[in-house]
Every structure is written in C-alpha cells, then in structure tokens.
Model the fold of this input.
Amino acid sequence: MSQLKYENNILRFENIDIDEIAKTHQTPFYCYSKNMLTNNFNNFNNVFLDLNYKICFSLKSNSNLTLLRILASLGAGADVVSEWEFKKAIEAGIPAEKIVFSGIGKNENEIRYAIANNCFQINVESLAELKKINQIAKDLGKVQNIGIRINPDVQSDTHEKITTGSLENKFGISVNETLDIFNRINEFSSLSITSIAFHIGSNIKDLNPFKHSFEVAKHLIDKIQLNYETLKTIDVGGGISPEDRNFTFEDYYNLLITYFGKDKFNFIFEPGRLIAADAGILVSKVLYNKITEGKKFIIIDAGMNDMMRPALYDAEHEILTSKLNNSDHNIETEIVGPICETSDKFIKTDKFANIEDGDYVVIKNVGAYGSTMSSNYNARPFIEELLIDKEEIQIIRKKQSFGDFIKNEL
Ligand SMILES: Cc1ncc(COP(=O)(O)O)c(C=O)c1O
Done:
C-alpha cells in the first residue's frame, strides 16, 4: 500500500506532512520510504521461497548506499553494470557471491576487478567479450562463472528506448551464436559457462513477452543440455512493471516453473523499478506561475538534471500538490523545470490545481531511475536525499557542495 496519501487535505508520506519536511530541507529533494522499499522486496521475494534463487537488485535503478544496506539486510544480491556499482554493492554489505555483473561494454579494468573480487557471475554480451574475460581469468589464475546473455528477439511492448530484447537492439547474443559458443566451449578453459541470461526491457505490464523469452530460452537450453550439463542457472533479468500490470507475481512464478521446473535450475531475478520506483518521491517548490496567451507554465525548482525520465523517455509521472486543492485551473498547463532546454518539462495537462508560488509539489514514483540518472547539467548540484523510517527523517545523501562540484577541475 502506498505510503503517500492525503489526510485532511494534507499530503503525507509515511505519516509526515510533505510541507513539514520541506520546511527543514531545501527543495528539490528525493525522499524514500523504508517501509515501501522493504515491502516491495519482501512481496516479490516471498513468491519464490520454494525455489533456488537470488534476487539481484538492479543498482542502475537506485544505488544509494543506505537503501542498498536495507536491501542487503533483507537478503538481496546485486545486478551491477560498472566497477563503481560493484564497489557500492560490496560497501553496502552485499557479498560478491550474490553479485551479477551485466552490461554490454565492460572494460578490461572492470572485468579484472570483478574476477579478482569473486563476482558470482559475469553476463557476457559478445564473443569478443567472452574471449577477453577468458584471457583475464587465465592471467589471474581463476575460473569465472559466466552467463550468456541471449537476445530472444521479443517485442516487449514498452517504450522504444527501454526495450532490449529484440534483434534490433544492441543487447545480447543471438540464439544461433550462443549454440556456436557452446560448440567451442573448450576454447574457454578459464570460464565456466553456467547460465543463460536475458533481460527483454523495462516497465513490462504484460506476461506474454516473458512467456516468449522463456520459450526461446527453454528451447535453447534443451539443445545445450544434450551435451553440456554445466548449465544450471537461468537469469531472467528484470523488467516487471510495478503498476498497471495484467499479471500477478504468482502468474509469473507459475510461468517460470511451467518452463523450467522447480528443482532443475537456480534462478536469478534482477528487478529494479519493481523494488524502488514507488518507494521514492521528488519534492519540489513552485517558483513561478507564468500565464501566457491561453497557456500556463508552472515553473518548479526541480529540473531534468534532477529527474530526466520525462525528457529522456517521455515518462509520465503523476504530480500532486502538497495541499489538496479542488479548485482546478482549466487551462492547458505545463509543469516545467528551470533548465535551459525545451525538453525540461515534467507533465502537460488540460488542468491543474490552482497553486501559489512557494507551494510544494510531489512527483511520484521516482525511486527508480530518478537519482541515479541525475547530472550536474546547468551547473546544478546533486540534490539531497532523505529516508523516512516511521517518524524519523534521515539524510541519506547530502546535497553536493560547490566545493565538491569544482574540486576536480584544474
Ligand atoms: C540487465 C538488466 N537487468 C535488470 C534491469 C532492471 O530492470 P527493471 O528496473 O525494469 O526491473 C535492467 C534495466 O534496464 C537491465 O538492463
């Protein structure tokens, strides 16, 4: 259940008034609910308890150390795509044997770091990368577990910029090439190819694309297992949408065991958005109401540098006022940021509540791909991040200072 709700017309997040938080913390800021994060993880985790599995939270969706520590305490592993994500996972207490290293362009240092630090599994996205990892593992005198990320060539009916599982996309290795790799497996003496992995996109609301990818993977695995019994892990990636899905976690579980059974394989899940999205909000102040001919702009102090999903993916995030106000202004309204870019806008609507300069708004569902995508564009600082744990508000990332911002420039 959402921790964001109106009580007596006042918007509250985990029982604290948004206006109260905003009085003592400079806007814009991210704010997370420990309760929501925990419930999201547990609700997903509880479905798979009779399987052998790891839930490797996708750090690209959110890599705040405090949030990662909470997830680590619940038993989460990590899906990482860079050396620093790997280091953050370790720093947060996630053991290397629960870390999967994904990503299409890992460099030599990153591969070396992952192998030297006992990464559970590296997911490989090309033959060239496989050769490189084999060489580095050999240099280090180690044998590295590998997942082959296949491209199941499936349309996932999500925004074109977040689909990853069709052959037009740069991700993964085709099924035929994967079979070739297994035919040449003896060339990779420092690798143990133990897993088939796939991730077909993000924010997927329908079960069919998953069904299609399971089907492709099952068919492939059946062929591979005729000769190679080392294959024992299926990494199904992430991608499950947290909202407006037409399937339940139980449907997903049933689909999974229909194809792969309960006991034959270990499973890896890599959810990001599902765990973090609705656990986070972005609180921002209205700077100006600007009314032009036939149109209104509400200019807020958060910009696309703080939350770039609308500009990058046309993502739509509901925006609430901190006080419920039933007197809508029936005029085309855009809620925009202060950045010098036309794409710096959050929402366009036919009407929005009458709101005064200095009032607060809340952008919903930004716990995933919000803070992690932020930048210093327009020389704006990384903003503060807060965690609410029942009645307590904790700063979990300080706002970046000007000194920190310029310290590496010569
Ligand atoms: C390889 C991989 N795994 C997991 C995820 C997490 O996806 P989501 O946040 O949609 O669950 C992503 C996101 O793009 C990804 O690329």
